[in-house]
Amino acid sequence: MIQAAHTTRRKLLRGMALGGAAAGLGLWRAPAWALATPTQPGVLAGNDFDLAIGSSTVNIGGCAARAITVNGSLPGPILRWREGETVTLRVRNTHDEMSAIHWHGILLPANMDGVPGLSFHGIEPGGEYLYRFTVKQSGTYWYHSHSSLQEQAGVYGALIVDPREPEPFAYERDYVVLLSDWTDLDPHRLFARLKKRSDYDNLYKRTVGDFLRDAREHGLSATLADRKAWGAMRMSPTDLADVNGNTYTYLANGRRADDDWSGLFAPGERIRLRFVNAAAMTFFDIRIPGLTLSVVAADGQYTRPVEVDELRIAPAETFDVIVQPTDDIAYTVFAQAMDRSGHARITLAPRIGMRAPSPALDKRALLTMDDMGHAGHGKAAAGEMACGAAMGMAGIDHAAHAAAAPLTHPASESGNPDVDMQTMSPTPRLDDPGIGLRDNGRRVLRYADLRSLHAPADDRTPSREIELHLTGNMERFSWGFDGIRFSKAQPLRLKYGERVRIVLVNDTMMEHPVHLHGMWSDLEDANGDFLVRKHTISIPPGTRRSVRVTADALGRWAFHCHMLMHMEAGMMREVRVEE
Amino acid sequence: MRALLAVALLLCTDAAFAQDHSQHRQHAAIPQSPPTTATDEHAQHREHKVDASAPGQYRPPALTDTDRAAAFPDLHGHDMRGYMDDDPFVWMLMADRLEWQQGDVLAWEGSAWFGHDRGRLWLRSEGEREPGHATEASIEALWGKPVDAWWDVLVGVRHDIADDSRGHDGRDWLALGVQGLAPYKFEVQATAYLGERGQTVLQAEVEYELLLTNRWILQPRIEATAHGRNDAQRGIGAGLSEVEAGLRLRYELRREFAPYIGIERAYRFGNTAGYARAVGEPVAETRWVAGIRFWF
Fold it and tell me: Which strand ranges, in their side-by-side order, compose the sheet holding A128-134?
C-alpha cells in the first residue's frame, strides 16, 4: 500500500522535472504544513514558519529528563525551503533563558545568523524574532541554538533547501538521518564536570594488564619507551572523546539504537540519505553493511560522486549519500562513535517491522605520536620534546611538504596555562581516513576524495594568509586559538571583498571541526589547489589544513570549533568583515 | 629564515590589520609553487602586494545601505560573552581520604575549591582523631592561580586546631605552595609554611594512580614533612621529621565515589624519632586503613 503510493508519487515527481526531488520526506509545496508519517519526524515545508523554542520533558535514557526543543520535538522539525525564495521564520522563545536559532551553513545577512550578542541581540524569554532572508543556495544543512549549551539540550534540526536547478543525481527516496548525542545531565553540569575531571568518561585507559600484554607482544623496551612518551606528555592515547557513551545515548532521528527509526524502500530504488551530525561532541563513523555509499554532496554542496564503504562525519558536517539496495532485505545504517563507546542506527527496510542486526563495534584505536604530528623524531623522544608549554620549538623546518611553511608557534602559546602541547611537524594529511579507520578493509571517505562539482566563483589568489593554532589544555579543559580564549581574543578582521587563506594548525591531541559562519571555506590540498567547498572543516590532531575564504559577507561572524564544550571553553573567535 | 619572515610580515602588513598581530599571525600568501630560495619567496611576496588581485576577475557584490544596516545591528547591549562563558564559576569538593585506621583512628584529607580557571579559592584540611585525644587537624585557605599548563601556585594561611589533651595551642601559619601534575602523571603538592614565631615547615606529597583496571585503582602515596627547628613540646625535631607511605586500593563504583582499603606506614626521623623514643612511642608504625574517597 505504502509502496504503491510511493511508486505513483515517484512517477509524478519525475514528470514534474524537479530533478528527482524528494519522495520520502513529503513534497514541499507552499505554504507551510506539517507532514507526519508513522515513521518520519515532522517536516515543515514552504516559506513561512512559526517555530517555538521551549522546555519539554523527554524520556530517552529510561527516565524523564528536561530537554529544550523546537516545536516540542527532539530533534526539531525538518525545515524544507526552496532556493531563491524568501523565507520568513517567526521564532518564539518560550524557554526561561536567552535563546536563538542559527542556520548552520546558510549564507545570509549577519542579523539573521542567530548568534546572540554577536550578530543580533538574541531572543529574550517570552520574546520573538523575525528571521527573513532570501535563500541563495541549496542542499542539506541544519539549524541549532547558538546560545549557551542549548544545542546539547535538544535545540537542533535538519534543514533542506531544494534546488532551483535539477540536481546532478537521481533517487526515488529521500531521508534525513540526523545523528545526535543525548544526556539526561544538565549540559552546564556536564561542562562543570569536564572542568573538574576532564577524563571522567575515559574508562578505556591503559592498565597494568595492557602493559604486560604490550611488553609480551612488542618487547619490554618498546613498551617502556611508549609509556614514557605518553607519561612525559601527561596524556593518554585513549583520549579520543571528552564525552562518550558512558554519558551519552547516541540518537539517529531522535531514536535510540534499540528502538530505531526505519525508512522504507522497494528493492532497486535509489535512496538519498542526508546525514547530518547534530551531535554536540561526537564524531560518527557511518556505514551500511552490504551497501556502497555514493557520496554526492558535502555540507550541502555537490561533489563529484565518490563511492565508499564508510565515512566519518564530524559534528556539524553534512553528507548526502545515495545507496541502491537491490535485495528484499533490511539494512542497518550503522553510526558508531569515533571512540567506539556506542552507536546510533537506523534501518532501511522493504517493509515495516523488518530489521537487520547491528555489526559489532570496531576495536578502539589508540592515538599515536604520529597522529599528533610528532612523526619522524623517534616516538619516545618526540613525546618528550614536543610537549609541555615550556619548550621552544620555533623554527623547525620541514621542507617535505610543498604547502608547509616553516612551523613556528604563536608567542602567545608559550608559558600559557591553556596550552598543554604543540605539534612538531603537522601536515594536511587529507588522504588519511582518520584514527580508527585506517586499514580496516573498507573504502573510507577522506577529504582528499572530495571534489566540489563547481569551482568557487572567486578565482583570485588569496592576498594574505592568517594562521591560527588550535590549542587547549585537556586537564584544565580550556580551549582556544593561539592559546587565547574567546573572551580575551580580539576579532579577526577581514576587509569586505578580500580573499584570504586561513591556515589551521592543530596543537592539541583532539580533532576539531572548525566552522566559519556566513562565508564558505574552500578547502585546499597540500599544493594549494581547490578541493571542496565546506562550512565546517575538521582538523585532526597533528594536521595543518588551509582554506580560502572570500570575505563577501559584511558583519560580525562566529568562527569556532563545533565541539560544543570546546567552543564554550573558549575555542572561538569573532571574524569581523568590515568595509 | 625567521628574520626574512619578519621582513615579509612588515612589507605585507597594512595599518588596518596591525592591531591583530598579537593574537594571530598573518603573512603574505605562499606562492602556488614552492619557492626555491628565500630570496625568491621574498620577491614573490612583494609581487603579490603590488598586484594583489591577480589573476582572478571576481569582484564581490557592491554593498547597499540595507546590507550595512543588517551587518551591524543594534545588539541592545548584549555581548556574546554573556552566553558563552569560557571561564565559568565552578566549585568542587573532594574527600581524598576519609578513613578508619587501625587503632580506631579516624583520619581525613580533603579539599574544596571555588572559582575560575584564572584563580580559585582553595580550602584544604587534614587531620586525625585518636581515641583518648582531641582532634588534631589543620585547615588551610589559599588562593591558587595557574602558572603553566600543569602547575598552580597557592598562597594563603593555615590554622592548626588546638589540642588540649596534648596541651597544644592552636597555631597560625602563612603558606606558599605549588600543586600540579608532574611528568609521568605524578600528582604533586608541596607547601612551605611560616609560623607566628618564625618556625618553618615544608610538606610535600606525591600520589600516583596505577590502573589495575579502569575501576580498580592502586594508589601509592608518600608524604614527607620537614621542620626548621626543634619543638620539644610537640615532639618535633629539626630536619626531615616524618614520612608516611601508603598504598590504597580503591574501586570506583562511580568516578565520584570509591571505597578503598590500604596500608600505611609512618616513619619518624632524626630528633623527632628521638623525642618519640623518649616518651615510649614507636618510631615507625604500620596501620591498616579502610575508607571512602568521593567528590562532587
Answer: A64-70, A48-59, A86-93, A128-134
Q: Which of A264, A259, A262, A320 lies closest to A293 in space, CA to CA?
A: A320
- The distance of A498 to chain B (nearest Cα, Å) reads 8
| Nearest CA distance, A64 vs chain B (angstrom) | 22
Count of beta carbons in the 10 Å neighbourhood of residue A383: 26
d(CA B180, CA B152): 6
What is the Cα–Cα distance from A521 to A527, expressed in whole angstroms?
A: 17
d(Cα A296, Cα A312) in Å, to the nearest integer?
Answer: 15
Predicted pLDDT of residue B25: 57
**pLDDT computed for residue A25 by the predictor:** 39
Say how far apart CA A101 and CA A151 lie, in whole Å: 10
Q: Name the least confident of A409-413, A440-444, B82-86, B90-94.
A: B82-86
CB contact under 8 A, B32 and A466: no
Is-contact A332 A198, C-beta < 8 A? no
Altogether, the residues listed in chain A come to a count of: 579
Average pLDDT, chain B: 84
Q: B3: burial class by Cβ within 10 Å (0-12, 13-18, 19+)?
A: exposed
Report the C-alpha gap between A290 and A358 in whole angstroms: 12
pLDDT at A480 over 50: yes
| Percent of chain B whose pLDDT exceeds 70 | 81
Strand pairing class (B119-129; B105-116)? antiparallel
DSSP state of A518: S
Alpha helices by DSSP H, listed for chain B, are: 2-11, 15-18, 38-50, 65-71, 270-278
Rounded to an integer, what distance in angstroms lies between the CA atom of residue A302 and that of residue A291? 21
Would the pLDDT of B19 be above 50? no
Q: What is the pLDDT of residue A405?
A: 55
Flag whether pLDDT at A395 surpasses 60.
Answer: no
pLDDT of residue A396: 36
- Residue A392 predicted with pLDDT over 70: no
What sign for the dihedral angle of Cα A169, A42, A161, A314? negative
Q: Is B168 helix (H, G, I), strand (E, B) or coil?
A: strand
What pLDDT is recorded for position A509? 95
Residues A387, A418, B210, B153, Cα dihedral to 10°: 110
B210 to chain A: which residues are within 8 Å by CB? 208
Q: Is the pLDDT of residue A112 over 90?
A: yes
| CB-based contact B90 A192, cutoff 8 Å | yes
The answer to whether residue A195 neighbours chain B at the CB level (below 8 Å) is: yes
Q: List, as ranges, residues 48-67 from B with C-beta within 8 Å of A.
A: 48, 52-61, 63, 67
The b-or-e profile of A403-432 (16+ CB within 10 A means b, else e) is bbbebbbbebbbebbbbbbbbbbbbbbbeb
Nearest residue of chain B to residue A560 (CA atoms): B84
The reply to whether B89 touches chain A by the CB within 8 Å rule is no
* Phi, psi values for residue A144, rounded to 5°: -165, 165
Contact B27 A528 (CB under 8 A): no
- Choose, out of A243, A460, A502, the residue to mutate when testing the contact with B (most B CBs < 10 Å): A460
Q: Which pLDDT score is estimated for A41? A: 56
Cis preceding linkage at B35, omega within 30: no
Bigger pLDDT: A318 vs A383:
A318
What is the predicted pLDDT for the residue at B27? 54
- Whether the ω angle into residue B60 lies within 30 degrees of 0, i.e. cis, is no
- The length of chain B in residues reads 296
Is a pLDDT exceeding 80 seen at residue A398?
no
